[in-house]
Every structure is written in structure tokens, then in C-alpha cells.
Design goal:
Structural class: alpha+beta
Strand content: 25-35%
């Protein structure tokens, strides 16, 4: 006994040592999600667990067996449950649902809830205990917004047996989604058993209205081979950051075809890449449809995949897609099978049949082949890149808090009060550090005059960052919150925003790229296209980690620039050399003696024997107001230079009879065209 105990203790110590080494080297375990579910019965616990372990080991994946008899209260027929893990989010189960039947419904292998299709995995979680059939359905659809990490069970009557945590979510009943499913449904056992699960947010999931279908694919073959082939095709053709979906409903259901037909698609977040219209082409079986077709408006449609009736005696039915402007973009596809009451969509008022070309007639995909009546639906959105007004970023907002939730909720409440469109990064910019939680948000505007022209990051080892500065003829002003707020080390880091007509582009959107050195790939909280750019630093760094030198996750801010729309005055003809020269001359001398509304006469300057005109802001007296004047004042304030009385008068643009940094900032604002008149001039009017 002592020897056995010593062996156990030695193993425990060895395992602990391994854990310490792994932690010291930063080898954090990869995030795990539930991949597949299994169940097995037996006359006793040992038999059921052995059979279950054998099935789980065949998968080659890491697995877990829940130490709980699902037939709780029945010791003669026990049932145990287990599941495998995956580190790939695309393989993860994202939803669980249970349905009960008095008799086995063999053909109902899929069900649909809120537009999400679930596939039956376990026929009866009541197996051996009598009662009703309790079938478990799962989905890998990204539309649920969840990634399941663990599964558990709890008993409600007489006992409080819990496998997992008490606060895990309870799996619901498909026929009544507000009701928790009882795994002992219909039995004589005096216990109610619920299945529970834990999940994390699927950060790659977006709302359906902002997710679009870019491409559609179909395969045919025996059930498993066809589905596996379709999954491989989708994975091969999906681009970085894109998700995929497929329908596990055989579109040849009930026909005499030798194989099944399945359909799948690739999602995009960019409406400009999305399918804008769908039609069916229907001809007799001996006449194949053409590769291209055109609608009544002359839009070109292209054939997708093969004949839906392939392999049977029915008509030739093909799907056509277009990417030309229709005022619509495709969000989702749905399947209707009246015979088995299968509807793989949720009718929210935006769904419609896909009609036969040139008609308003719905198409039976098994037309002429017998079998089940199957129709295809489409969910369309009015949002297109062409008919929506261009939006720009109006203002940035940064909020700190002791927790991400507190900071996020506070900033969201403030943004909502503004009553204008806004967006937020749903991640802590200080993630993994010892600092405060940092949350970033911004508002939108359709008015280019209100838009932010550029964004920069500025960092310093000391708290010496200026409130504003001019760079590339743009005035940048500080967003007050330090992005390293609360950290025990690291630089001061602030965002600066600029406005002004000197910018050739405006900021349309903002995104965050974040990843850990533990992760194999980064997560981008925006849809990256070739137009997106990193937010640069004042020093010119094109890519800067927000958590540089303070640990935590790697975080990089991106922005989407769009060209500034040209004004009518910018498109005037420049063929007349005289006019061109005159315009250039006027521009160069807009603050000069001959053409400047800021000029005045001063007879009191003893440095000049004659009365002399001067220009406010023209400190170096070269008849122009530019950054050289700003530099001269800064040198004077640093006691590296001096001003004549007349130059001092030119520098006092605030009109307070002294030259200070406020005059520097005011001239910078004038150069950036944020003001047209200096305060001293306004006082004189």
C-alpha cells in the first residue's frame, strides 16, 4: 500500500514539475473546444465507460468522459457521455439542442432553430431507461456566436448532483426553446436531469445583416464523401478571415439518384464582394443550361455547380449568381422540405424563394424526379457598397477602468447618449498587462467636413507629450487617455487625431489586430482588405505594438483611409497658363502685402522709419504664414532667438499683448485651416 502511494505521489510531483517548466517557458496550453459528442450504455459503470473510451480513442483526439450516469436513478442500465476536443475554432461545436420523441423518427436527422441548422449526433440519451427518445443535436454554425468549451449535467430533484459548474447554461428543448430539456423524459425515474454547457464568445461572428455570401459550391456523392468533399472545397477556397457554412440536407432526398447533393458557401464581411442576385435555370433533362444567363435588366448571371437533379430522371435545374448591382446582397441560403417539415431558415421578413429565371415561380429542386418537395430560399439585405452614403470617423473616445466590462459599459453608455452611429473595439487594449483596462470607441459622420483626416500614435518614456503638434501641414491634437494607463512600466502612449483640408484622405473605419505569442495566428477585429493600413507613430513607425515593453498581448491599431472627395473648384481647367500662374501666385502670397486680409499698418514701430504693413502670423516677415513662423516663436520662447517689436506684434495672434505657446497653437490651427481669422483680428472687428 505504501509502495503504491509512493508511486502516485512521485507521479503527481513529476506532473507538477512539468507544469512549472511549461509555465516558465511561456507554453500556455492552446484554447480547446468541444469537437464531437459520444455516448455508450452498459450493465454497469465499468462496461459503459470502457465501451465509450474505445469509441473516443478511435478519433485520435483528446477526449473527456463525464463521470455521471445520465440514466440517473437507474442502476441496471447505465449511460455515460463523453466528447472530444479541438483547438481549431472551425471544428468547434457552437450550439446544442435536444428534441424528444415518443417513437424514433429515423429520417429527422436535421432540425433548424433561428436560421441555424442542427444535425443529430446521439439518437437517445435515455437509452436503456425506457421513456421517450431524447435526441441530441449539435451545430458548428458560426451564427450562434458561441464556441462550446465543456459539457456537464445536473440533477434537480432530491439531489444536487452537478458535473461541471452550477452557472453553466442549460441545453434547451427544440420544440420549446424556453424550456430546459429533461434527459429522463417519460421515464419512471424520479429525477430531472439537465445537460449544461460552458462557452466562450466567438469573436469572429458578426450579425447576419453584416455578413454576406461571396461564393456558393455544391458536391455530389455518397452522404459522407459528398459532405467531406464540400468541406474541403470550402476550406480551400476561403480566404484569410472568411468563414464557411453548409447545409446537411440532401437535395436529392427521396429520388432514385445513386448519390446525394449538398450545397455550401463562403461568407465575407465586404458587401462589394458579395453575390447580389440568384436565379434558377430549368430545362428538360436532355438540354443542359448555358453557362451564362441574363435577367430583364441585362445583368449577367453565371452558372454555379452542377445540375441539382444530377443522377436522376428529373429536369435539369441549375443555380445562377450575379455580382452586378441589383440593390441587394445575399446574407444566407435556406432549404425547405415540406414532407419532413424541415426549414433551415427563420422567416424574419427578409427571406424569399429563389425563383425560376424570368418568372416569379418557385422551383422544386426534385422536379420530375419524384422524391421530396425541396425549395431553396434566400435572405437578402438592402445594404450595398454602392447605395450607402460614405461614412467617416468623427471622433475617438478612450475609456479606462478597473475591468474591461466596467470601462466598456461606461463608454458605450456615453456613446449612446450622443445619438449618432458609433462603434467600439470589443477587446481590452491593455489585455494581459498589469495596467487598467483600456477601451476604444468612435463615432461616425457622413459629413466630410467633420471627419478625422488622420490618426497617429505618439510615445515617450516620460510624460512630456504635447497637447498638439503640426506634421505634414496637419494639426494633431491629443486624445487625453494614456494607452498604457496603470502599468508599472512602459512609455506614455497617446492617440492623436488631425483634421483639415490639407489631407488627401479621410478615416473611414478603425480596427484592431491582436494576438498572443501563445496563439498560432492573429485575430483581426475588422475585415482586412488591401486598403487597410496600420496607424503609424509620430516617429514614422508603420507598425507599433500598443503593449510594447509592458507585456500582455500584441495589439496593433489599423485604420481604413478613403480618398477625400474633390470639390468643384478642384476640377476647374488648368489649361490656361496665365490663370494657373495667377492661382499659384495668389496661394503663395495669400498672407502677403498685396493680398492678405490680415494685413494692417503700424506707425509706432521705431525700427522702421516709414509706415509699414504687417501680417498677423508672419513672424519672420517673409510675407507668408507657415511653419517657419511657428519655429521662430518656439525658439524665442526657448530663449534661442529674439523678435523685433514689429515681429512681436505679428506673433501676438491671440491679442493678449504677449507671445506664448497659445500663439504657437493658434498659428498651427490657422496653417491647418481649422480657423480663418486670428483671435486678434476678431477682437478688432
Amino acid at each position: 500500500m505504501k509502495k503504491a502511494l509512493a508511486i502516485v505521489l512521485a507521479l503527481m510531483m513529476a506532473f507538477t514539475a512539468i507544469q512549472v517548466v511549461a509555465f516558465a517557458e511561456g507554453e500556455e496550453p492552446a484554447k480547446k473546444y468541444v469537437k464531437a459528442v459520444f455516448a455508450a450504455t452498459g450493465d454497469d459503470d465499468i462496461e459503459a465507460k470502457e465501451d465509450l473510451a474505445e469509441d473516443l480513442e478511435k478519433t485520435g483526439d483528446e477526449y473527456k468522459i463525464c463521470d455521471f450516469n445520465l440514466n440517473y436513478g437507474d442502476t441496471d442500465d447505465v449511460l455515460y457521455f463523453g466528447y472530444t476536443y479541438t483547438t481549431d475554432e472551425k471544428e468547434a461545436i457552437t450550439g446544442l439542442i435536444i428534441e424528444t420523441y415518443r417513437t424514433y423518427v429515423g429520417s429527422k436527422s436535421t432540425i433548424n432553430l433561428d436560421g441555424v441548422e442542427y444535425e443529430r449526433q446521439i439518437r437517445d440519451l435515455n437509452d436503456g431507461a425506457g421513456g421517450n427518445y431524447v435526441s441530441l443535436y449539435t451545430t458548428t454554425s458560426r451564427l450562434t456566436g458561441k464556441l462550446i468549451t465543456d459539457i456537464g449535467f445536473k440533477v434537480l430533484e432530491n439531489e444536487n448532483v452537478i458535473v461541471g459548474e452550477a452557472n453553466w447554461e442549460t441545453v434547451k428543448l427544440f420544440s420549446n426553446p424556453d424550456t430546459a430539456a429533461n434527459l429522463n423524459d417519460g421515464t419512471g425515474l424520479n429525477y430531472t436531469v439537465n445537460m449544461t454547457y460552458n462557452s466562450v464568445e466567438d469573436t469572429t461572428t458578426a450579425e447576419l445583416d453584416s455578413t454576406f455570401i461571396r461564393a456558393i459550391y455544391m458536391t455530389k456523392g455518397t452522404a459522407k464523401d459528398a459532405v467531406d468533399s464540400l468541406k474541403a472545397t470550402l476550406a480551400e477556397n476561403a480566404q484569410k478571415g472568411e468563414t464557411t457554412g453548409l447545409h446537411l440536407t440532401n437535395l436529392n432526398m427521396g429520388t432514385d439518384a445513386a448519390y446525394d447533393v449538398y450545397i455550401g458557401y463562403i461568407f465575407t464581411k465586404d458587401p462589394a464582394k458579395a453575390i447580389t442576385g440568384l436565379m434558377f435555370g430549368v430545362t428538360d433533362n436532355d438540354k443542359e443550361n448555358s453557362r451564362y444567363a441574363y435577367d430583364e435588366a441585362g445583368r449577367k448571371y453565371e452558372l454555379v455547380g452542377e445540375n441539382f437533379n444530377s443522377g436522376n430522371s428529373g429536369k435539369t435545374i441549375n443555380l445562377y449568381v450575379t455580382y452586378e448591382e441589383t440593390g441587394k446582397v445575399l446574407n444566407m441560403l435556406g432549404i425547405e422540405n415540406n414532407s419532413d417539415n424541415i426549414f433551415t431558415f427563420s422567416d424574419d421578413g427578409k427571406w424569399s424563394y429563389i425563383y425560376k429565371m424570368g418568372t416569379s415561380s418557385k422551383v422544386d429542386l426534385n422536379d420530375g424526379a419524384g422524391g421530396k418537395y425541396i425549395y431553396m430560399w434566400q435572405r437578402l439585405s438592402d445594404y450595398t457598397a454602392q447605395n450607402v452614403a460614405q461614412k467617416y470617423v468623427k471622433n475617438l473616445y478612450v475609456k479606462t477602468g478597473d475591468s474591461f466590462t466596467a470601462a466598456y459599459n461606461q463608454l458605450e453608455a456615453e456613446l449612446k447618449k450622443l445619438g449618432i452611429p458609433y462603434n467600439m473595439i470589443t477587446f481590452n487594449l491593455n489585455e494581459g498587462t498589469d495596467g487598467k483596462a483600456i477601451v476604444l470607441g468612435w463615432t461616425y459622420t457622413e459629413n466630410a467636413e467633420e471627419a478625422i483626416a488622420d490618426i497617429l500614435l505618439h510615445h515617450s518614456s516620460k510624460d512630456v507629450l504635447p497637447d498638439s503638434f503640426v506634421k505634414n501641414e496637419l494639426l494633431y491634437t491629443k486624445v487625453d487617455v494614456n494607452l498604457n494607463e496603470g502599468t508599472s512600466e512602459g512609455a506614455y502612449l497617446n492617440l492623436y487625431i488631425a483634421r483639415g483640408e490639407n489631407s488627401k484622405s479621410l478615416v473611414s473605419d478603425i480596427g484592431l489586430e491582436m494576438y498572443s505569442h501563445f496563439w498560432s495566428k492573429s485575430v483581426k477585429y475588422f475585415v482586412q482588405t488591401d486598403d487597410w493600413m496600420y496607424i503609424k507613430t509620430f516617429a514614422g513607425e508603420s507598425r507599433y505594438d500598443l503593449n510594447e515593453d509592458i507585456g500582455g498581448e500584441y495589439a496593433y491599431l489599423w485604420y481604413l483611409p478613403v480618398d477625400r472627395a474633390k470639390k468643384d473648384s478642384d476640377t476647374e481647367s488648368s489649361s490656361d497658363t496665365t490663370n494657373t500662374d495667377t492661382k499659384a501666385s495668389d496661394t503663395d502670397n495669400k498672407n502677403s502685402d498685396t493680398d492678405n486680409k490680415h494685413s494692417d499698418t503700424d506707425n509706432s514701430d521705431k525700427d522702421n522709419t516709414d509706415s509699414e504693413k504687417y501680417v498677423y502670423g508672419d513672424v519672420n516677415r517673409d510675407t507668408k504664414v507657415n511653419m517657419e513662423d511657428v519655429t521662430k516663436i518656439q525658439k524665442v520662447l526657448a530663449k534661442l532667438d529674439s523678435l523685433t517689436k514689429l515681429a512681436e506684434k505679428c506673433a501676438d495672434v491671440t491679442g493678449d499683448n504677449k507671445v506664448t505657446m497659445e500663439d504657437v497653437t493658434t498659428i498651427q490651427r490657422y496653417i491647418a485651416k481649422l480657423i480663418n481669422v486670428f483671435p486678434v483680428e476678431a477682437k478688432k472687428k
